[in-house]
Amino acid sequence: MALVSNRNSRPFRLPFTTLPWVDIIKFLLVIVALSWLLYRGTERLGYNWQWHRVPKYIFSFEGSKLILGPLMDGLIVTLRICSWSLVLAALFGLVTALLRMSDSFVGRTVARGYLELIRNTPLLVQLFFIYFVLAPVLGIGRFTAGVLALSLFEGAYASEIIRAGIVSIDKGQWEAAHSLGLSAIHSYRYIILPQAIRRILPPLTSQAVSLIKDSALVSTVAIYDLTMQAQVIISETFLTFEVWFTVAAIYFVLTVALSTIADILALT
Questions:
Q1: What percentage of residues in the chain have a pLDDT greater than 90?
Q2: Model confidence at 220: pLDDT above 90
Q3: Which of 9, 179, 203, 251 is most buried, taking the most CB atoms under 10 A from its CB?
Q4: Minimal CA–CA distance to 102: which of 111, 115, 92?
Q5: CATH 1.10.3720.10 fits 67-267, yes or no
Q6: Is the confidence at residue 9, as pLDDT, over 50?
Q7: Domain ranges of the chain
């Protein structure tokens, strides 16, 4: 429990408000405008839309039994990859942030080297290096290699977010914790991190959204995630626009759901 409670403080809001139905109308107008532009573009290309063929790749029924299509199978793999990667990225980020603020020269050097290496090389190169170089040595599969690459990449950015949140805590909180005789571990656990979480949750949510979108790169190492399944369907059916728009909508739902959950947690 934090020593200083901020429950009575309210988040800053802009001095003007908008009615909900006005926002809904604006959103619908944007959708209509984009749909019109898409229709005009495909009309000039002479593309023949075949949306009626898409549902069977999402799900179908055999009698009363629900059968998941390849896109849903890929979505399940994507969710597994993202779930493991989010947990490991948070762990890597926390450990790296604590090492950077520690008194250990070796710890700070290792954390700094990790950050510079990860942040200054492309994720795709890191994924290939882990899959083609480290995976055979360590004896790990492509799924584990993909999760490890995503976790290390996103963890480097998460560490800076976590460190900034910890540094932003008032120095008096540390002094109060020390005056109570708390160790460094207990100070982080009961005083510092509970206060820092509220501050780092929004940027961490943005990083988690980036992780979900970056997870599409694991298809390059033959992991049959949502993107890979879409590529297979397109190669067989040539439903290029329909399938990619469907995949984009699924990713959109995932990221919006994650952002909504984070907003709810921030208000509790």
A1: 54
A2: yes
A3: 251
A4: 111
A5: yes
A6: no
A7: 67-267
